[in-house]
Amino acid sequence: MAKKETSKVKTDILNEALKIMEKGELVELMYEQGDLKIQLKKAGAARTITTNVPQYMPAAPVAAPAETKKPVDDPKTGIIKSPMVGTFYKASTPDSPPFVKIGDMIEPGKTVCIIEAMKIMNEIKSEIKGTVKEIVVENAQAVEFNQPLIIVEKN
Known about the structure:
Elements: H1 11-23, E1 28-33, E2 36-41, H2 65-69, E3 77-81, E4 86-89, E5 105-106, E6 111-117, E7 120-125, E8 130-135, E9 142-143, E10 148-154
Antiparallel strand pairs: 1-2, 3-10, 4-6, 4-9, 5-8, 6-7, 8-10
């Protein structure tokens, strides 16, 4: 019986892409093989690589009041959006204080939340300097790719 080639991820391709990303020559890669989709993105100065496999995650109703309240071109407001599908957490553990609260000042590079995706905890860092105006999602809520998480009033 012949083995299906699509059942095995071609790690040599992914490793080569990661090497190119580290050199700064590549900022985003989408790899698809059968039902598997892997998205690699290099985030700003943090140089974070995230994976996104949306077809395996449950879809959640998207409550995005931030998009309806604020115009997209408002230069005084920034929106930190989810870079992946997963579960939003305000703190690293249930007993820990939240990474940010309404009224907190944040700087680029500050961890603002965690998104759990495929049992991997991904720290989400701010790329905006400002004051946390609103946290749009609830703790332990499922989030979609590009869903608004935190509204920031830029300073």
